[in-house]
Amino acid sequence: MGFRGEGALLTDGAPVDVPRDAAREAAHEELRKAVYHQNEPGPVERLVDWIEEQFGRAVDDVASPLGGGGHAALVVLLLLLLVLGVVLWRRYGAPRRAARASGLFTGAQGPRSAAQHRADAAAHAARGDWEDAVREQMRALVRGLEERTVLSPRPGRTADEAAAEAGRALPDQARELASAARLFDDIAFGERPADERAYRLLADLDQTLGRTRPVPAAVGGGTA
């Protein structure tokens, strides 16, 4: 049975109408949604291109046994999107864009001091619960800055916001603070596994910040 593309004929002369271009365009638009491009766009782009190529071939191979027509292309499209969804879910997990906006102390067990957060972090670390250890240690770091009035207490503040604000008062540690916030986000929102090294990095930075004096704000345009 011969079949090649849109408008081809079966061997008995009956026309086959498979809207391959329309189906491929639908797949193209679905595959290029922003959620699939949050991380490592290079490999994802290559995956999209490969799937588009396979889609075209699959329509040619599958449409005829299925009887041709738009139903064959739709079946192939749905199967390919299902496979892609499973691959991307296993690689990146659920989209976390909204979660990244969560406040650093959201879900914490009531107001706690920096010392209490440090103790909780150390207890989690002793059990090997590195994700919870990282979470509590980041909270201890920020709470410590609040207790020293480097930061003013503010509900809903994210790790990124805390790092940016603290970096202005502690410019020598601004880069380390930004790196710590990124590390916390990557671990807390499921994109990177926590480990002892991440916990130690935050704990060491917490100690360094405790020994660092903030830079006074400039008065009258001069440098304090």
TrEMBL record:
Pfam families per UniProt = DUF4129 (PF13559)
Domain (Protein-glutamine gamma-glutamyltransferase-like C-terminal) spans 138-206
Report the domain of life of the source organism: Bacteria
**Which keywords does this Swiss-Prot/TrEMBL entry list?**
Membrane, Transmembrane, Transmembrane helix
Q: Does the keyword Transmembrane apply?
A: yes
Q: Where are the transmembrane segments?
A: 70-89
Q: What is this protein called?
A: DUF4129 domain-containing protein
Origin organism is Kitasatospora phosalacinea
